[in-house]
Amino acid sequence: MPTKTTYSQAARVQGILRTLGTRHGITIGELSEESGVTKRTLYRDLKALQEGGYPLLFEVVEGTTYWKLEPSFKGVPPVTFTLNELMSLYFSRKLFTSPGRSPFRADLGRQVPCKPSHVGGAEGHN
């Protein structure tokens, strides 16, 4: 049985991504031993990663399931957020799923002026 470790889910999921990115395949049992959480927790974490858009693959070899990260995705550098940034993203996501309840509802219907092409460009700044 895996030992209990007090990692946050975000830290645990980042660890799972690192492990999947460095291996050609790992079983849930091996991942459970390494991360110190139950297989059930790992299945939830893997599901969350898939729902978050991470390209996870699994392959059954001689009756054993191996999980891995899509090879083309392994070279993509990780995007790291602070805890405050993650919380802000999490709690603000619902603001934009239903504009009817959003404080920005009135602004969403207006046309936002485009940034002129010369602003911020290198041209004309000699």
Task: Summarize the SSE layout with pairings.
Layout: H1 9-22, H2 28-35, H3 39-51, E1 56-61, E2 64-69, H4 83-92, H5 105-108
Antiparallel strand pairs: 1-2
3D structure, described in words:
Helices cover 39% and strands 10% of the residues. With 126 residues, the protein is mainly α. It has a single domain, classed as Winged helix-like DNA-binding domain superfamily/Winged helix DNA-binding domain (Arc Repressor Mutant, subunit A), CATH 1.10.10.10. Strands 1-2 form a two-stranded antiparallel ribbon. It is elongated and about 60 Å long. The protein starts with 8 loop residues before the first helix and ends in an 18-residue tail after the last helix.
In DSSP terms, counting alpha (H) and pi (I) runs of 4 or more, how many helices? 5
What percentage of the residues does DSSP assign to strands (E)? 5-15%
Spell the H/E element sequence: HHHEEHH
Unreliable parts: 111-126
Please bin the fraction of helical residues: 25-40%
- Tell me the distance between the termini: 67 Å
Mean pLDDT: 75
Give the overall shape. elongated
**What is the name of the CATH superfamily?**
Winged helix-like DNA-binding domain superfamily/Winged helix DNA-binding domain
* Helix/sheet category: mainly alpha
User: Based on DSSP secondary structure assignment, what is the total number of beta strands?
Assistant: 2
Q: What integer value in Å does the Rg equal?
A: 21 Å
Summed up, the domain count is 1
Give a quick precis of the structure:
By secondary structure, the protein is mainly α. The chain has helices at 9-22, 28-35, 39-51, 83-92, 105-108, and strands at 56-61, 64-69.
